[in-house]
Amino acid sequence: MTDTKVYLLDGGSLVLDGYHVFWNKGPGGEVRFPVYSILIEHAEGRILVDTGYDFDHVMKVLPFEKPIQSKDQTIPGALKLLGLEPKDIDVVVNSHFHFDHCGGNRYFPHAKKICHKQELAQTCAPEPFEVLGYSDLAFSVEACEARGMTDQIPEGATRENTTFELVDGDPEIAKGVRLIHTPGHAIGNCSLMVEFQKRKPILFTIDASYTKKSLELLCQASFHIDPVAGVASMKKLKKIAEETGAELMFSHDMEQFETYKKAPGFYG
């Protein structure tokens, strides 16, 4: 396998109450957590997994999450730190479509797009308690039209250039790059395994487990569609990590994030 590099693109941070981060456990109080995207430099192309949040959308719809995002933490700004532009990305993968994972999709009309087959349908018809999570629909003309929110359609977006390839199970999307279906937080939530030539694999939990503590306690975030499936997904990730020796990285753990290499640093 040609050497693969993984860059973590810092997308800023948001705030939730501790009881939302650790469902029914807490402790309560504000918890500021990171948001980041994963850029994979691969022999088969550049793959971007998740695109962070759109600051203006959060300030309009979820201002209580107190976004902090510099110019360098926007998707274009983060790519620029690597000497790249959005046009240099070949594939965009969305682990799921909560607003903090799809806010930068609008920059990639040219790219191939991938998501789990259940996730787009859920975004188009979410449960009442999911509406805020699925509030940024700019990534999909189909979703905007289904939800009667066509005012969110970005300039130049069409059904054709916001169409997704739908996957199921735990597919390999490039050699050594695998999505792992981990439902519970969202019906189509996917985690990510990346293999390397010269180091152990990295297993990104994505939102199946916000933090290291979450996985240790099998305590998911309060925002979920199926808590039983969520616990099963955590157990699945633990088993994969034990069997493969993969290094676990968590989506919204500030203490852990501060120890991670951020772009322009990389893993490889």
Describe this protein's structure.
- The chain has a single domain, classed as 4-Layer Sandwich (Metallo-beta-lactamase, Chain A).
- The chain has a six-stranded mixed sheet. It has a five-stranded mixed sheet with strand order 7-8-9-10-11, with helices on one face.
- The chain starts with a strand and ends in an 11-residue tail after the last helix.
- It has helices at residues 18-21, 55-61, 75-80, 99-102, 119-124, 141-146, 212-217, 227-244, 254-257, and strands spanning 5-17, 30-42, 45-49, 91-93, 112-116, 165-167, 172-174, 177-181, 190-194, 202-204, 247-249.
- It is of the alpha/beta class and 268 residues long.
Short description:
The chain has nine helices and eleven strands.
Structural class: alpha/beta
Provide the domain count.
Answer: 1
CATH architecture: 4-Layer Sandwich
What is the CATH topology? Metallo-beta-lactamase, Chain A
CA gyration radius, whole angstroms: 17 Å
Number of helices: 9
User: What is the ordering of alpha helices and beta strands?
Assistant: EHEEHHEHEHHEEEEEHHEH
Termini gap: 12 Å
Shape: globular
Give a topology summary.
Layout: E1 5-17, H1 18-21, E2 30-42, E3 45-49, H2 55-61, H3 75-80, E4 91-93, H4 99-102, E5 112-116, H5 119-124, H6 141-146, E6 165-167, E7 172-174, E8 177-181, E9 190-194, E10 202-204, H7 212-217, H8 227-244, E11 247-249, H9 254-257
Parallel strand pairs: 3-4, 4-5, 5-6, 10-11
Antiparallel strand pairs: 1-2, 2-3, 7-8, 8-9, 9-10
